[in-house]
# Entry
Amino acid sequence: MTSWRDLVPAGETTAFEPLALGVELRQREAYDPARWEARAVVPVTPRSLAQRQDDLQLVARPLVRGARDAWIRADATWDAVRRSSGRFDPAHVRWFAELHALAQALRTTGPFAPSGDTVALDAADSPLLWPLLRSGEVLGIRIVPMHAQQSVRLARTATARVALDAVGGGALRVSADLEIDERRVDAAHARALGAAGLFAYELDRDPVPIVLAAVELPAPLPALLSGGVVEVSSADAAEFLAEMYPRLARRAPLSVGAGVPAPPPPRPTLEVAVTYADDDVAFVLTWAYPGTHRVAYDATADDPERDPRAEAQIGERFETAWLAASDLPVTARATLRDADAAVFVSRVLPAVDLLDEVRVRATGTAPSFRELRGDPSLRITAVESVDRDWFDLGIVVTIEGRTIPFATLFSALSRGRTRIKLSDGAWFSLAHPALQRLRDLLDEAAALDEWEAGPRLPRTHLSLWAEFEDVADQSEAAVEWRRLARALRDVADVPRVPTPPGFRAELRPYQREGLSWLALLHRHRLGGILADDMGLGKTLQLLALIAHARNLGDERPWLVVAPTSVLPTWRDEAARFAPGLRVAVVEATAVRRDRTIAEVAADVDIVVAPYGVVRADADEFAGPHWAGVVLDEAQFVKNPATRIHRAIAALRTDAVFAATGTPIENGLDDLWALLALTAPGLFPSIRQFREDYTRAIEQLPADAPTALSAAAAGAHREKTLDRLRRRVRPFLLRRTKDVVASDLPPKQEQEIAVALGPAHQELYDRVLQRERQKVLGLLDDLDRQRFIVFRSLTLLRMLALAPGLVDEHDAHLGSAKLDVLLERLVEVAAEGHRALVFSQFTSFLDLAAARLDAAGLAYAHLDGSTARRGEVIEGFRGGDAPVFLISLKAGGFGLTLTEAEYVFVLDPWWNPAAESQAIDRAHRIGQTRSVFVYRLIAAGTVEEKVRALQHRKAALFDAVIDDDDAFAASLDADDIRGLLGP
# Structure
């Protein structure tokens, strides 16, 4: 056996060549504009450091002992030390290897790269640096200077605080307060080494003393070194103490001077203490402060150690998350049972546990609650009763394969409960539309007779039986429909579809989701509504769908129906992104064509046609069996009574897809019209749709003021709206720019109130009084007198813009709006920017053009009379003019004008969606600059009332109608009175 004495042979020496860490403070030479070569980096000296203290860098490298007992570079490079075999102590070699790895990992983050064989210590942003340096001392590795006029040492202790001092007059100063080895150090002569240390130096000392110190430097301490002092003016001091001071106190240690209030108390944590006992769940809410201080959630805020502001902030986030997860009331303590306990454990606790400054503590074993989220399946049968005049109803409700006891379900529905818990812990919500409708029908049936053995219906009440049939899943088609709806509940769960081969566009994440959603619908021969915000690439997603379908082997053509102005967009986008698709644009009716639609479709992949041609040649378009139909700007088919709606409904196709940013315009009937084409059968009867949804959401019943309180009416409306959204959700996909296009620059909107000139205002007021007397006398028969009323409103709106639009004899009164517009356009053009100017009145655009001509400011002009629309648009995009005058009708669709970053809306339109469309000509994907939107509103005129009416209408619908006349038709007598009132 080998003896321990044999491990090291006798006489063998273990002496190694010593190593030291050389440290040097360097500085880039001062900038000299007369010199072109790069500025050199040289060691600092007392003289150079006294002159300037910027562009500093701390570097290090290995050193060996020289012949004269001095530490020298020699051949001790990092690589030589690492590769040495027996020359240096292995422990020292490992130490230098670790230091080199730390420094090199972040070597590019310093102000400039180190030279030679050195590494930059001030770029080593790692807390591991400091224990490594201290372990070097234990190993006998000295830290020495590399320059004769510098000294270096490693500090024993260091503290760093944010100093807050009063400087007189109510002003404050924020700076860094440093102590190294119990000695104050000037923070102006210190630099951060990452977030866990610093180095400091002194002036007017030879050699220059440099000290390395390990100390935590939480924000904002690194920014306060090197003389970084923040001055807070007396005007801002109160806001600073209220908003920033508490945040500083939480982030970093403070040094508070005389005249500055003590830092605020530490923020609390909201503890949710949960106790499980069988199926019962008890909870208590408590404010927990650092240490042992505990306060009940609902205790009055009279404790000086509490932070009421922090509690209010945390409590607001907590209660918002709680109420979003369930309808349970927020209380400081409670014991919950049955379904309430289930919803608390399944929904509330997971929601609040995600919040910052909220902590959930549980005691006991949590019950195994499981939420049944599937759509309920209802099977309803009718058999003859003992009483031959009645039918007995058999009702079976199944959720996720579980048959729900009808007695339990009926009892809960009749008592108005919101959820049910079964014996095994499974529970489900009763808020589903099918169950709510079932409850309503059961209540109505029960009112016909006193039930004894179960629900029943009289033979003569056929309409109520039909409604029971409508709510039940009896046909295979209905079951399949609901199965697909479950798959489409959340876009994120839809199977991903890759970008089709050869498709020359990098789809954004939300566009890939849109493609997957469209592809899933099309695979099941169903359509839908793509209702993304303007400018998010609806055309691109639909082209990708067509390319995807062709790639799967479906060779049937697609039909795209679009406004005439958008036809070139489809042709150009297809050529750009899907050059493999053959496209034919049909711009003429059959009487002017040489070929039939069937012949055209046989040779291409996509037929693009305007709505007018499809309406005129409906029979021809109904011939081919289209793989799919795309309705671009689908608000054109919002009226089910029109020929174009009937023509689309008659097409032979697997699916119809509607693309529109405004699926609801005049009202909910528009949504029904689109769904009747894209998802036929979802709401079979418009009469029933109006009864179930339109009446409750758009207007209350006539007796609502007496039968319902305002709160009850609002709750009923929200409940109905939520039911409609759930029904529609699988077939409507909408994403907004602020959510999915995070890289889109901001859009800043401002209303500019323009005061009319005295003579202009006097004329307007005189005409207003005349028109008000005339119009108010017609409101009792508004439907017959609507044209006269609308003409008076239009007269007032034009008069608010410029009197010369109404009577050329008043043209000398000018237009205050054009004065403001011209002033701003001159400024925009002078700064090299470009602007879009919109108005619905082409005559007002003509006046604007005349003013621009007089000012010598170049512009492009687009309205319905423009003959060469494409050339005008491309001329502006190419930079021919800084201003583009555009009318609403001509510029409503198919324009991308991201070259402009200013938008001026000269007059408020009846339709706020049209304003959004106009603004989105510039604020859409591809825009890289902020967009500034200015709405010019004539003060003291009908324009202010129109703007207020826009806000009210927009609050009810996502968007409203697509043209002024239709919106005017939707105004009621109260709206008119509001527009003409004082």
The first helix runs from residue 46 to 51.
